[in-house]
Amino acid sequence: MSEALGGEELKIMRKAGKTATSILRRLKKNLRAGISTKDIEELFDSYLSRYPGMEAAFKGFNGYPASICVSVNDEIIHGIPSSRIIKQGDIVSVDVGIKYKGLYVDTAYTYTVGRVSKVAKKLIKVTMKALRAGIRRAKPGAKVGDIGAAIQNTVERHGFSVIRKFVGHGIGRKLHLVPEIPNFGRKGQGYQLKEGMVIAIEPMVAVGDYQVRISDDGWTAKTQDKSLSAHFEHTVAITRWGPKILTH
Ligand code: MG
């Protein structure tokens, strides 16, 4: 269960969150056609090693074999870095988690490589917008369903679909904590958010249907209809002053 965290703990998470963001920014600069998804992981590892005490949170989590997830085009999440080469026109979702002083942060972005299709651009824009809409609802007293409904409405209004199989989560002394934060739902329903809780809000959006297929590697989740998918995530603290994004 997600416990209320104090100012000192939030400060630690903020530091880890800032690091995650700055590493993602550097990964984005290096992201180009011709490099492999494994190259992206190696860059992440080398950047992270410059920050004493910080560790890749995903490595070994539930048996996950890599430091980060890199999911390309129809891959939604949990893409295992490999020899797969990034091409012009790809969209690439990079999901990173950092553990620091016993606390976790989790954040993801979807990037474009070269010129991408109109629909890919729209998908990324809508997914970012949906994340912002969800974050705005993350206040003490709000229900988890308020966040899900805001995300779902934003996505469906633009004709896309929300992945159901994977959801956001509480985060803090563990990477995944109760409550689950679905990207769909009804306003006023579900668990009530309290001051000091920290949650990872992470809409995963598909151009087509929301049905998911898991690849033979046992991890990579793809859209069943092979449509493009995007993923954005922030770790957000619930404070009396409103939502505070720790991964900025
Ligand atoms: Mg997450």
Q: Give the class-level CATH name.
A: Alpha Beta
The CATH architecture: Alpha-Beta Complex
SSE ordering: HHEEEEEHHEEEEEEEEEE
Arithmetic mean of pLDDT: 97
What is the subunit arrangement here?
A: single chain
Report the structural category.
Answer: alpha+beta
How many extended strands? 15
Indicate the proportion of strand residues.
Answer: 25-35%
| The CATH homology group name | Creatinase/methionine aminopeptidase superfamily
Within the largest sheet, what's the order of strands?
8-7-9-14-15
Biggest sheet record = 5 strands, antiparallel
Using the alpha-carbon principal axes, give the shape. Answer: globular
Count of discrete domains: 1
Nutshell version of this structure?
The chain is α+β, with helices and mostly antiparallel strands and 248 residues long. It is 28% helix and 27% strand. It has one domain: Creatine Amidinohydrolase, CATH 3.90.230.
